[in-house]
């Protein structure tokens, strides 16, 4: 199997940056920490810079005259992976910015617990996917997909809870959007796990039921 040490390192660095950003976004939202919000906006600039640098390196290697089929398969898969990482960083920033609106004050204890459980589950999926990429473990994709079903169930329950408890329709819509961002973060983890499995199995890096077209 072809692998590039520098590209793998850059991908894993993006995994770590996005994971930290999402974890920070969760804290910023639940605790209305404006200091974290400002930090995450700067972190998003770093993620974007790393993303663009990695994208350039991959495209340059795809044009190399000595490329092999294994190399092309690896690079095309990486081309699919890096936008998922960048979009996930965007989701973290969106959640953090919503934290500045004080929406958490409108959450009843049950709804707050559901949202926190969603975020923790999404982070767990992300962590497993990062480790899977590091070791090119194709077995993780099915487990992450199962976790995503649990995340979807929590999302449905949370949405029903805020619909029945929020007095303001505008607030309920903002909270539903935050939950949607968290759910999308999990979807990106699923796509990343599938692409990692494609590296190991040498199957097409375009997963069935791809979810990456929405962000």
TrEMBL record:
List, alphabetically, the Pfam families matched: PhoU
What InterPro entries has UniProt attached to this entry? PhoU, PhoU-like_sf, PhoU_dom
The PhoU domain extends over 12-97, 115-195
Please, one GO biological process term? intracellular phosphate ion homeostasis
Q: What is this protein called?
A: Phosphate uptake regulator, PhoU
